[in-house]
Amino acid sequence: MAITIGVVGAGQFSGQFAKLWQLHPGVGDVFVTDLLPERAERLAAEYGLAGTVPSFEAMLDSDVDAVAIFTQRWTHGPLVVQALRAGKHVYSAVPMAVTEEEIAAIIEEVRGTGLTYMMGETSHYNPATVHARDLVAKDAFGRLFYAEGDYVHDMDLGFYDAYKYSGGENWKATASYPPLLYPTHAIGGILGAWQTHAVSVSAIGVVDDRGDGVFDKEVSMFDNDFSNATALFEAAGGGSFRTNEFRRVGYPSRIRESRFRFFGTQGSLEQLATVSVWQDREGVTDISDHLQPRTTLAPDDPSLEHVAPALRDAFTSGSAPVHDRSRLPKEFANASNGHEGSHHFLADDFVVAVTAGTLPPVNAWVAARYTLPGIVAHQSAVQDGARLAIPDFGYAPGE
Questions:
Q1: Which residues pair with 257 in a beta bridge?
Q2: Are residues 153 and 277 in the same domain?
Q3: Structure confidence by residue, pLDDT tens digits, 172-219
Q4: Quick one: 130 exposed, middle or buried, by C-beta within 10 A (0-12, 13-18, 19+)?
Q5: Cα–Cα dist 220/334, whole Å
């Protein structure tokens, strides 16, 4: 039986998923709501959705089976809890939440209701993560003991436009969002392959010096002036991993904004903007082609009209050879993809989890392990790198 989905937030990102769910054979009607009704109406007309709903509360009062939350990143936690309490399955854009208490509340509601919660973490299907996950299953690394994950997305390459689009007149107050509170594109790619979790962290933040009112404590609603940050995590079972969250960086974010490295006793994998290699004691193998997504949508495609030009590359990549598309609906074959081939898998994962009653890959407990380390890392950075313990919510029931 097909499910119905209510999309909450008609911004630059949600339309790509509304389009995929509209195509999915396991989905019936797709509705949309936004604080600005004209945006919801435009999205519904553009993709031929079933219609608009006047508010989030009205969406929860409706008979949709699930809601997909694409609102501003610091609003996700409370909205997810409200939706679960209303009896709706939930797909949430990243991050899961911005406090440990919000994460705990989501897990409590998922456990109590038995409803599906999934965080839409793109790095779980980053080609490097998929390949590393395959190599871990084959024990090719030997013992993994160190990994790195970078989310290097310069503010000038799309984020200024995105914050202006979503933040209105006070966009500078929101554009100062602490980098380490948006950690999942770096941490998720590491933990999506390495079966461990973070137990402690020490982090350093770099105070911004651009002087344009962004990352300015006097303007910031988050009292934040860090534009770049680095965190070193202790991994459960031994080893460590490091992440970088950079918003002021001379790097071509549009080519590859998340990148990863894994080091084991028998082999290592390293990924840069355009090159990926496998290395062992015998030598180096270039695996760039295996991990390179094929473009499926031109950057000037009409469906990208409302996406900031500097962000469009993230929405036009197709699948890489490493991706196994055999599990995807045939209706996705010629549909636009994005974020290095992750969108198709994310959209399908959620529908399958809801309809089959199974845990999605990035369920509430996994999402907590992808998110909470960054929250604690920001606290460490504020405390000049103090090493802090990271609480863990464990595995999902039955795992």
A1: none
A2: yes
A3: 999 999 999 999 999 999 999 999 999 999 999 999 999 999 999 999
A4: buried
A5: 42
